[in-house]
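pinging the channel bc i need a second pair of eyes. not urgent but kinda urgent?? the chain im working w is below, pasted from the shared doc
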Amino acid sequence: MTITADLPTEVQRPRARTAPLVRLLRSELRMVLRRPRTLIMIGLLALVPVIAGIGIALASSGDTSGDPVGEGIAALVDGNGLLLPVFALVLALNMLLPLTGAMLAADALAGETANGTLRSLLLAPVSRPRVLAVKAFGVATVSLLVVLLMAVTGSIAGVLLLGGDGMLTMSGTSLPFIDAIGRILLTVLLVTVQIWALAAIALAVSAWTEHPLIVVVVGLGVVILSGVLSAIPALDWLDPVLMTTSWETIPEVIRDPLPTGTLLEGVLRAGCYIVIGYSLALARMLSRDG
C-alpha cells in the first residue's frame, strides 16, 4: 500500500491557482510602459500640441494682414489657448493616434506570439478570455494615457503661448475656464473611444497573425480606406458604417450648445467596432492551439 493512498484528494492533487486579476493588469501595464518604443511614442505625441502651439504663435505674429491663421478650429486657436488641445487631438486623430493604437495592439498579441511569450501565457493557469482582457486593458489604458497627456501639454502650451482664460466656441460664444476644461476632457473621452475602436480591430488582426507589421498596415489601411470611401459622393450610403465618420464629428465639441446627439452617435458607432473587434479576437484566442 502506498502512502498517498490514504491522503485526501486535495493533498494528492493540488488545485491550480488562478493568478489574481489585479496583479495581471499591473504586470501588463508595467511591461507595456517599459518598452522603449512605447516611451518614445508617448514622448513624441506629448510634443505634438507644443509644436502646433509654437507654429500657430509664430504664424500669427508674422501675419500683418489681421486675417485668421488657418481654417476651422485653427482659425480660432490664436488668443484662444484652451482650444489648442482640442485642435491638436483632432489633428493627431487623422494618423498619429490611429498609428499608436495599431502599434499597441500589434505588440499585445502578434508581438508576443513572434517572441514566443504568448504561448507561455496561454499555458499558464489563466483562462484565455482573461488573457485577452488583460491585453485589451493594457492597450486601452496606454491609449487613454497618451490622449490625456496630449491634452495636458496642449492646455499648458496653449495658455502660455496663445493666451486666453476661456474658450471661444465655433458658435461665437465664450465659455468660462471651468466649462472649457470640461470640453477638453470631453474631447479626450471622445478621441480615446475612437482609438479604442481602431485598436479593437487591430487586436483582432493581431490575434490571427504573428507579424506585428501586418497589424499596423491593416489598422492604417482601415483608416485610409474609410477616408477614401467617405470622400466619394456616390458612396454616401456607406457613411453610417465607416469608422472615420465619427472622427469628423469630434470638432462639434466646441459648439454651443453641445450637439449631444451627433457626438453620442459617434460613440455608439465606435462601441460597435469595439464589440466586433474583441469578439473576433476572442474567437481566435479560444480556437488557437497554444
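so The two ends are 39 Å apart (CA to CA). and Strands lie at 167-168, 174-175. — does that match what u expected or am i reading it wrong
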